[in-house]
Write a structure and sequence with these properties.
CATH superfamily of the domain at 73-247 in chain A: MetI-like
Shape of chain C: globular
Helix content of chain C: 25-40%
Structural class of chain C: alpha/beta
Largest sheet of chain A: 2 strands, antiparallel
Radius of gyration of chain A: 24 Å
Distance between the termini of chain A: 31 Å
Structural class of chain A: mainly alpha
Order of helices and strands of chain A: HHEEHHHHHHHHHH
Chains: A mainly alpha (292), B mainly alpha (287), C alpha/beta (279)
Oligomer: heterotrimer
Radius of gyration of chain C: 19 Å
CATH topology of the domain at 73-247 in chain A: MetI-like fold
Largest interface: A-B, 94 and 97 residues
Helix content of chain A: over 70%
Number of strands of chain A: 2
Order of helices and strands of chain C: HEEEHEEHEHHHHEHEHEEHH
Number of helices of chain A: 12
Strand order of the largest sheet of chain C: 6-7-8-3-9-10
Shape of chain A: globular
Chain lengths: 292, 287, 279
């Protein structure tokens, strides 16, 4: 942007008016996040005061009717679902991008990329519905009851795969041609070039993609609510039903009152904290890696 | 890099080939399974009656007419609020702030965080702020306003890109001719930045329609035809959710509704691609 | 088709000093009526050239005559470019380069290429050298370290980088990067070196260092070097070939010994170009 913000160009009062009204508008936009945090804290305050932060992690269980507010089983549910889905989706997504760029014949590459873009656009409720109607019964045949951590992981995987695949695709496209030519001139075969040259060159983009998909996995509500059974417990196996923090809020918000409602806002704050921690640690790691 | 090295040179290359094709095949298979399933089960139930009639028996029979109306109204509220704020902010960030201004950086940073907030947290916020504090209750208005907050970062990012794509020479020529910045903006820059704006708009609409968690406790569950913006209204995504989770025997209509929703989104995605090409064409013509 | 020997340990222990330094001139690279078309448009047509073993040949001429494209045909890098068609014959050490069943990987091991803009991989210095060696079958740590030191010494980089082999290669200066790229190519013990204006993207000082390195390669490798710089060509080349655009495509105007091209050119165009009156 050229330095057009200096005063030499705006000698008209309409311009001043415009600039100030735009500033006002932008302030509204920028303030929304602050507003969200403020409201979360305000609504969560009663629970933090009456119940106390420690009890959210030490109470015997989550039983708002009896005044018990332990979030830990649901934290575990969120963490397991997130970890499982990221572990599966990341290699699949990155290999998909590698397929598009380096292995697919041209007539397949473009439709495949379009397919991934379409997958990215399907609403979570449709994924959840399909998972409920198709995947859960299949899992129930292997091991009842069906709605389970495994179902949640699988559905989440399908949902976050486009995120990492598209980011990886963009990063691979940005790898300078000269690296590829240099590798070819050295007689390096295809996968060796990808593994040894392309991946290091695309490192930061791939990393960003992983961060984005992890954030999406943590924040997903509808699909995981529909397929994972919603029993508040720390899962003992992948076939056990779980409830995530997000699903918990969605399920109980409709009828929660008083301290219970405030406790749900506390779990909302915990979610925000997880996302912020993710973004911050991403920035911290990538700064260190910038010259590596 | 589609070149003649297609025969793998050693076992590692073979393994890589198998894994890469396997991954692509797996993803394609899952996608076809999913879409195929929805089309297969939903197609038989979708008809003009389905699209216009009200739901009966908690949605097990009947159609989604009022629901489509509610969805459009929610969308309308969302866009009428987010468009002005989004364009205004984008204009400010692209045209009136330098890259190093504190205000610009802070606004951008806060928008980045906003983009990452989970949709359920938006739902909580919408419930606390729009429904309770502003007293709007469960209504289309609350839902639309909450969605506007969600869609804003997408809109702003895309519109800002659109403005940045306009060549600096336009602005310099306008200034050299003594035109005020307002005139330059309205008559010269805005029209040229329209492709970026449209892409952002369409992406935002796509996100808004797909949204469920943010609407559950802001716009409500009522599936009647809404009378006003303050009425509660059910969006299509919520209808699918309700039919599949809370209504036994609602699967058939859930499939049909899901198909309608997917088709709407495919149309929107198609528009984005078409716009990208069209926008490019216009830039070349204008250049 | 001559079978290619894999790189074995005994070959690796020899540094540049031990390589044979030419002998009786024998054609090593033979090009017969080579033409290259990008999307139907010719880059160059009907180039016939014969290059002796151990010779340094400069390809000169103004830009756009197809000199770089010509180089890329020799190691089949044209396979990477979509819409590219090559016709004619190339023979390197009796190996038919353009034949469909030629092992391109082994071909490119025997031919090293240095690009105009230094392009070390975004890895450490050590990995830049180690990685291609590993891929071509050298796995032994000791051999690799030995080869690394030998080639880095040969290009004059050893003293400059021996204490920072694990730092990023991209942190090196332009001249150092180019020398690293040359070391990387030499580590695979090629027989032919293709150099596309290796000094033109470097500042004069670094360019001089690289040029001295190239001169030291003479006789031990068959080198084809594209250069815009006539003075450089005069300084370093044994043979020279002039390319020019005629009838819409690059063509080989004249080829011969350096003495002949620069002092007794047969073609009037060559005479005009080397005296600076044209180009």
């Amino acid at each position: 942007m050229t330095s057009l913000s200096s005063n030499t160009l705006s000698r008209w009062s309409t311009d001043e008016l415009l600039c100030w009204s735009l500033r006002g508008i932008a302030t509204i936009a920028g303030a929304i996040v602050i507003l969200i945090v403020v409201f979360l804290i305000v609504e969560a305050l009663p629970a933090l005061q009456h119940v106390g932060l420690l009890r959210f992690f030490t109470d015997p269980s989550w039983h708002p009717a009896e005044g018990l507010y332990n979030l830990t089983p649901m934290l575990w549910g969120t963490l397991f679902a997130m970890t499982g889905s990221v572990l599966i989706a990341t290699p699949l997504g990155i290999l998909s991008a590698v397929f598009c760029h380096y292995y697919a014949p041209l007539i397949l590459a473009r439709p495949y990329r379009r397919l991934i873009e379409l997958l990215a656009g399907i609403p979570s409720v449709v994924y959840g519905f399909w998972g409920l109607v198709v995947m859960v019964p299949l899992i129930a045949e292997i091991q009842p009851p069906g709605p389970s951590l495994l179902a949640g992981i699988l559905i989440l995987t399908i949902m976050i795969l486009p995120t990492i695949a598209l980011m990886a695709d963009a990063s691979l496209a940005n790898v300078p041609q000269q690296y590829l030519r240099g590798a070819a001139a050295l007689g390096l075969p295809r996968w060796a070039t990808i593994r040894g040259v392309v991946f290091p060159a695309a490192k930061s983009g791939l990393f960003t993609g992983v961060i984005l998909e992890t954030g999406r996995a943590i924040g997903e509500t509808m699909a995981i609510l529909m397929v994972s059974g919603n029993v508040v417990q720390t899962p003992s196996s992948v076939f056990a039903p779980i409830r995530t923090l997000t699903a918990n809020i969605a399920l109980e918000m409709a009828y929660a009152l008083g301290d219970h409602r405030a406790a749900l806002f506390v779990s909302g704050l915990v979610l925000m904290a997880m996302i912020v921690a993710l973004v911050v640690s991403a920035g911290w790691i990538s700064r260190g890696r910038m010259y590596g | 890099m589609a070149e003649t090295l297609s025969r793998p040179q050693n076992p590692r290359e073979w393994l890589a080939l198998v894994l890469v094709w396997g991954a692509a095949g797996l993803v394609t298979a899952v996608f076809c399974w999913l879409l195929g399933d929805i089309v297969w089960h939903g197609l038989s139930h979708v008809s003009w009656t389905f699209l216009t009639a009200p739901p009966e028996n908690a949605g097990r029979r009947g159609g989604i007419g009022p629901i489509l109306v509610s969805t459009s109204l929610i969308l309308g509220v969302c866009l009428s609020v987010s468009l002005p704020i989004g364009i205004g902010t984008a204009v400010l960030l692209a045209e009136f702030t330098s890259n190093h201004s504190l205000f610009g950086r802070m606004t951008r940073r806060s928008l980045d965080v906003l983009a990452g907030v989970p949709s359920i947290v938006f739902g909580l916020f919408g419930n606390a702020f729009f429904c309770k504090t502003l007293g709007l209750g469960f209504s289309i208005l609350s839902g639309g306003l909450t969605l506007a907050c969600m869609v804003l970062p997408i809109l702003i990012r895309s519109t800002e890109e659109g403005f940045r794509a306009v060549p600096t020479s336009y602005r310099l020529s306008a200034a050299a001719l003594g035109l005020s910045r307002t005139t330059t903006l309205v008559h010269l820059l805005l029209p040229a930045a329209v492709p970026g704006l449209l892409v952002g708009l369409v992406l935002g609409v796509g996100r808004a329609i797909a949204e469920t968690a943010a609407l559950i406790f802001t716009s409500g569950y009522v599936d009647r035809m809404p009378e006003s913006l303050l009425d509660s209204g059910r969006a299509l995504s919520i209808h699918i959710f309700d039919l599949s989770m809370n209504v036994s025997g609602g699967d058939a209509n859930a499939y049909a509704s899901a198909l309608v929703l997917v088709i709407m989104l495919l149309a929107i995605n198609g528009t984005v691609s078409w716009l990208a090409i069209y926008g490019l064409h216009r830039k070349i013509v204008a250049a | 088709m001559t079978p290619v020997e894999p790189i074995t340990g005994s070959r690796l222990r020899h540094s540049l000093e031990d390589r044979p330094t030419g002998g009786a001139p024998q054609p090593f690279v033979e090009v017969d009526r080579l033409s290259l078309y990008y999307e139907g448009k010719p880059a160059f047509q009907d180039v016939t050239l014969s290059i002796n073993k151990g010779c340094m040949t400069a390809l000169v001429g103004p830009s756009g005559c197809g000199k770089t494209s010509f180089l890329t045909c020799l190691n089949r890098l044209t396979d990477l470019i979509a819409g590219c068609r090559v016709s004619g014959r190339i023979t390197i050490d009796a190996l038919a380069v353009l034949a469909p069943d030629t092992d391109v990987i082994q071909l490119r091991r025997r031919i090293g290429m240095i690009f105009q803009k230094p392009n070390p991989f975004p890895l450490t210095i050590r990995r830049n050298l180690e990685f291609p060696l590993r891929e071509h079958g050298i796995r032994d740590r000791g051999q690799i370290t030995q080869t690394m030191e030998t080639t880095l010494r040969d290009v004059g980089l050893w003293d400059e980088v021996k204490n920072r082999l694990d730092s990023p290669a991209l942190a090196l200066s332009g001249g150092q990067q180019q020398r690293l790229c040359i070391a990387r190519a030499l580590a695979l013990l090629p027989e032919v070196l293709l150099m596309d204006e290796p000094c033109s993207a470097l500042d004069p000082l670094s360019g001089g260092v690289v040029e001295d390195l190239i001169v030291s390669l003479r006789g031990r490798y068959t080198v084809l070097i594209v250069t815009h710089n006539l003075a450089q060509a005069r300084r370093i080349a044994d043979h020279a070939a002039l390319f020019w655009v005629q009838n819409g495509a690059g063509r080989l105007i004249e080829a011969g010994t350096a003495k002949q091209i620069f002092e007794e050119p047969r073609d009037p165009l060559t005479a005009a170009y080397v005296s600076g009156m044209r180009g």
